[in-house]
């Protein structure tokens, strides 16, 4: 899996100037926002599918022939739960979360059954959508996450969209 995904990506919280080969037209100005999987392992657990990694937001700001890059993990409920537990605790498209091995037999059974039909993830790693003046990270579930396009901060979760 490391061959396909590589290692977990590090955030680039402050904008860093990219090395540009060639010349960017003077009329090309603005910011390109992208997202995709960036973290493929949490603790000793790893995702089984390349659509499952935790979302990493990317920003490319083009201004006066220069490009600045920054990135930040989407601080979704899924990200927060997984990193707090230091393992995958929220199921994804191709990765089923397993119950906590430290729980007693009854807690394990309940945890397993509750993950059989899990609440959908808010790990919005598929696309960025602009709605009015707001920007949202999206995925195929019924949750989207509002983001700040300048800082890549994660804002509120919007459900049942």
How would you summarize this macromolecular structure in one to three sentences?
This protein is mainly beta. It is 14% helix and 37% strand. A hairpin with a 2-residue loop joins strand 3 and strand 4 (45-46).
List keywords for this structure.
single chain; 161 residues; four-stranded antiparallel β-sheet; 37% strand; mainly beta; metal-binding; iron
Could you explain how this protein is built, in words?
The protein is mostly beta strands and 161 residues long. 14% of the residues lie in helices and 37% in strands. The protein has helices spanning 2-5, 77-85, 105-114, and strands at residues 12-17, 30-39, 41-42, 45-46, 54-63, 66-73, 127-131, 134-138, 143-147, 154-159. The strands form 3 sheets. A 4-stranded antiparallel beta sheet has the order 1-6-5-2, with no helix packed on it. β8 and β9 form a beta hairpin.
Work out the helix count: 3
Strand line-up in the sheet with most strands: 1-6-5-2
Q: What gross morphology would you assign? A: globular
Quote the beta fraction: 35-45%
Topology, pairings included?
Elements: H1 2-5, E1 12-17, E2 30-39, E3 41-42, E4 45-46, E5 54-63, E6 66-73, H2 77-85, H3 105-114, E7 127-131, E8 134-138, E9 143-147, E10 154-159
Antiparallel strand pairs: 1-6, 2-5, 3-4, 5-6, 7-8, 8-9, 9-10
Keywords: Iron, Metal-binding
Protein name: Beta-carotene oxygenase 1
Family: Belongs to the carotenoid oxygenase family.
């Amino acid at each position: 899996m490391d061959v396909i995904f590589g290692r977990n990506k590090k955030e680039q919280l402050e904008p860093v100037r990219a090395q540009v080969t060639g010349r960017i037209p003077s009329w090309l100005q603005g910011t390109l926002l992208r997202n995709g999987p960036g973290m493929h392992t949490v603790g000793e657990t790893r995702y089984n599918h390349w659509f499952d990694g935790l979302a990493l937001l990317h920003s490319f700001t083009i201004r006066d022939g220069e490009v600045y890059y920054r990135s930040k993990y989407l601080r979704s409920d899924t990200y927060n739960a997984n990193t707090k537990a230091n393992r995958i605790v929220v199921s994804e498209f191709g990765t089923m979360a397993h119950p906590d091995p430290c729980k007693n037999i009854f807690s394990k059974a309940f945890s397993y059954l509750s993950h059989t039909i899990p609440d959908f993830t808010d790990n919005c790693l598929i696309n960025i959508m602009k709605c009015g003046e707001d920007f949202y990270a999206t995925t195929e579930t019924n949750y989207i996450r509002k983001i700040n396009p300048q800082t890549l901060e994660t804002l509120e979760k919007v459900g049942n969209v």
